[in-house]
Amino acid sequence: MKPARHEIARFLEALTLLYLARLMLWVLPFKWCMKLIRQRGGNGRVPATDELPAIIKAIRRANKRAFWKNTCLVESFAARWMLRRRGIQSKVYIGVKPDQKTKIAAHAWVISHGTEIVPRSGEYKILMEG
Description:
- By secondary structure, the protein is an alpha+beta fold.
- It has one domain.
- About 45% of the residues lie in helices and about 20% in strands.
- It has 4 helices and 4 strands; from the N terminus they run ααααββββ.
- A 4-stranded antiparallel beta sheet has the order 3-2-1-4.
- The longest helix has 23 residues, at about 5-25.
- The chain is globular and about 45 Å long.
């Protein structure tokens, strides 16, 4: 089955935003990056039933096909931008938890209207939210 044009467009948007997020995190200080992704404005609109799953699918597909390794932070920034472009409110969380190997593990995730766009994947203590 051939993907629809809107699916391809969302995939290309996700791939582009993953690249831009990675570049931004590589070039700019983290403090500036967090300012750039903070939620602005009011409550936003309520997404259509199929909208959030479609964004999740686009981010996952683009992430699998990217020739570079993306981190949860890159995925979270790209997802946040996709949601913001559509006027959908979301929150980016950055948290930490103890880890056996490195003593501490950090993770970033995005939640919009009760749906995990980038999954939390564990019990992390929230350090920042934006």
